[in-house]
């Protein structure tokens, strides 16, 4: 399920291998340093603590900066912190040294207190922040979010104006990615309190510390502009003077605008990706997404392992991705997509290294055998199953493909598709009632395996199928507990967890997502981080 409805299908990603469009970083004399970028939907806010939509993430990530930045989708680089910090005290204490003389776009000094204010605001239960859960690794965050402790007890401290200290409740290997994400950005308390509930509702009611400032935006805007921020600490490396964002909800309209030179960077949808694959500006990168069938274990039929395996074995993932989706998505290996993690010892990608071949195989002959065995165990001759999915074209098309394949090969299998609005479908799956199979997905917010394996942990709110396995839970807890400080042991734990779940056919992974774009060939230096979309700090124009 998409985290708190944050990620819009095909809009961006959440976190995997990034791409940087080649270039030396120099500008060509006489070239106007401007760019026009497609946004797929209106954006809701510029309040970094509150935003939940990808479009806003892209704008905020280009106008704000935290302790770290995502260099690409798996690597962090120092932002307004001087260096990448090595944790102390059993890997639970991070002491960040900020750059000197940092300023907000309004001239206010930016200090360690701006992080204290922002992070306390995020975990305060009265703020009702959708991403508050991301702060849970910090000492006392859980008790604060449950209303049992004051926000002043959060494990953070402004030691002085340029020193910010964070204490975690336990070692958290992915913490470096969290502090590079939007919810962990600093905020100017004076400005936030000046505008109150109106903060971030227009570009004038916000303040910026990143490469650009936002101009001419309000919640009704379909275009807005980024302008180079003269107060940004690294302004000498920002080449673009202005960037125009333009909402283009129709993929056909976006492509037409690109072809006529009115947009420089667009996201391609479905068939467009296949048609434009040979275009010089075409690029595709992993979105950190897995689409999958969640079998509802409260359904008697779905508790039968043979039934689950039979359905999965009728699905030709290669045909699904190439002939149905046609959007660059790839055949999956298991729960986690590629480019999330690699074996510390061998460098092999986790997805391939931990795969259980039969869990994503296409074998109708074997499927029929499992199906017959499952029906016999259930004492029935046919099954009518309800499949719930979001009202998203890619989901509906995939669900119809699954339905057709099951009907073709499994005698007596009737899969009835119930298309629901996204909010309703997610609520249905969270309640674990009213369906046999849930068609859902997950897009990582940061490049760590825990993002995917929490999905199958017993009683996790995002465990759409209510899967429960004591051995799985034990290995999962070890990865986040006793083995958290050992890269290899933690990796091996997640590898074992994947193999346990895939041998169980806990879910049926259908595809791993890709984002396909067209980028004007003379717009260089654009980079992409899966969780944060497009980054323009180092972008520039050539002739």
From TrEMBL:
<feature type="domain" description="Solute-binding protein family 5">
    <location>
        <begin position="75"/>
        <end position="462"/>
    </location>
</feature>
<dbReference type="InterPro" id="IPR000914">
    <property type="entry name" value="SBP_5_dom"/>
</dbReference>
<dbReference type="GO" id="GO:0015833">
    <property type="term" value="P:peptide transport"/>
</dbReference>
<dbReference type="InterPro" id="IPR023765">
    <property type="entry name" value="SBP_5_CS"/>
</dbReference>
<protein>
    <recommendedName>
        <fullName>Solute-binding protein family 5 domain-containing protein</fullName>
    </recommendedName>
</protein>
<feature type="signal peptide">
    <location>
        <begin position="1"/>
        <end position="22"/>
    </location>
</feature>
<keyword id="KW-0571">Peptide transport</keyword>
<dbReference type="GO" id="GO:0043190">
    <property type="term" value="C:ATP-binding cassette (ABC) transporter complex"/>
</dbReference>
<keyword id="KW-0732">Signal</keyword>
<dbReference type="GO" id="GO:1904680">
    <property type="term" value="F:peptide transmembrane transporter activity"/>
</dbReference>
<dbReference type="InterPro" id="IPR030678">
    <property type="entry name" value="Peptide/Ni-bd"/>
</dbReference>
<dbReference type="InterPro" id="IPR039424">
    <property type="entry name" value="SBP_5"/>
</dbReference>
<keyword id="KW-0813">Transport</keyword>
<dbReference type="Pfam" id="PF00496">
    <property type="entry name" value="SBP_bac_5"/>
</dbReference>
<dbReference type="GO" id="GO:0042597">
    <property type="term" value="C:periplasmic space"/>
</dbReference>
<comment type="similarity">
    <text>Belongs to the bacterial solute-binding protein 5 family.</text>
</comment>
<keyword id="KW-0653">Protein transport</keyword>
């Amino acid at each position: 399920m998409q985290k708190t409805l944050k990620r819009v299908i095909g809009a961006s990603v959440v976190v995997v291998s990034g791409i940087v469009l080649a270039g030396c970083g120099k500008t060509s004399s006489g070239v106007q340093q401007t760019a026009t970028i497609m946004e797929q939907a209106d954006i809701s806010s510029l309040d970094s603590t509150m935003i939940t939509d990808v479009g806003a993430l892209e704008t905020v990530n280009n106008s704000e900066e935290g302790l770290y930045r995502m260099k690409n989708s798996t690597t962090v680089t120092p932002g307004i912190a001087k260096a990448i910090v090595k944790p102390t005290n059993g890997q639970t204490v991070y002491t960040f040294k900020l750059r000197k003389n940092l300023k907000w776009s309004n001239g206010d000094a930016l200090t360690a207190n701006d992080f204290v204010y922002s992070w306390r605001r995020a975990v305060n239960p009265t703020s009702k922040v959708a991403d508050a859960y991301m702060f849970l690794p910090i000492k006392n965050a859980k008790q604060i979010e449950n209303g049992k402790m004051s926000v002043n007890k959060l494990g953070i401290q402004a030691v002085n104006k340029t020193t910010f200290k964070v204490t975690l409740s336990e070692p958290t290997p992915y913490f470096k990615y969290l502090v590079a994400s939007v919810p962990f950005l600093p905020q100017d308390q004076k400005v936030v309190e000046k505008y109150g509930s109106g903060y971030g509702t227009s570009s004038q009611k916000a303040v910026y510390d990143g490469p650009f400032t936002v101009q001419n935006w309000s919640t009704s805007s379909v275009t807005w502009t980024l302008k180079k921020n003269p107060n940004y600490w690294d302004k000498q490396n920002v080449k673009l003077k202005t960037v125009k964002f333009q909402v283009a909800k129709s993929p056909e309209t976006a492509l037409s605008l690109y072809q006529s030179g009115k947009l420089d960077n667009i996201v391609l949808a479905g068939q467009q990706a296949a048609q434009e694959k040979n275009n010089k500006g075409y690029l595709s990168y992993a979105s950190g997404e897995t689409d999958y069938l969640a079998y509802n274990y409260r359904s008697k039929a779905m508790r039968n392992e043979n039934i689950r395996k039979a359905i999965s074995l009728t699905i030709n993932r290669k045909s699904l991705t190439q002939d149905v989706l046609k959007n660059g998505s790839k055949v999956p290996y298991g729960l986690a997509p590629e480019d999330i993690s690699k074996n510390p010892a061998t460098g092999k990608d986790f997805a391939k290294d931990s795969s259980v071949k039969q869990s994503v195989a296409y074998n109708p002959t074997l499927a029929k055998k499992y199906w017959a065995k499952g029906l016999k165990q259930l004492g029935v001759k046919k099954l009518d199953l309800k499949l719930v999915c979001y009202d998203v074209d890619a989901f509906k098309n995939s669900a119809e493909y699954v339905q057709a394949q099951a009907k073709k090969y499994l005698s007596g299998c009737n899969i009835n598709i119930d298309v629901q609005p996204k909010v309703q479908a997610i609520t249905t799956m969270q309640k674990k009632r009213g369906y046999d199979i849930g068609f859902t997905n997950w897009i990582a917010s940061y490049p760590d395996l825990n993002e995917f394996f929490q999905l199958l942990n017993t009683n996790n709110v995002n465990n759409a199928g209510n899967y429960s396995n004591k051995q799985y839970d034990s290995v999962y807890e070890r990865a986040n507990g006793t083995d958290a400080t050992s890269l290899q042991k933690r990796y091996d734990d997640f590898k074992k967890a994947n193999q346990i779940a895939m041998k169980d056919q806990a879910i049926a992974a259908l595809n791993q997502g890709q984002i396909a774009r067209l980028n004007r060939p003379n717009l260089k230096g654009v980079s992409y981080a899966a969780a944060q979309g497009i980054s323009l700090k180092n972008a520039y124009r050539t002739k």
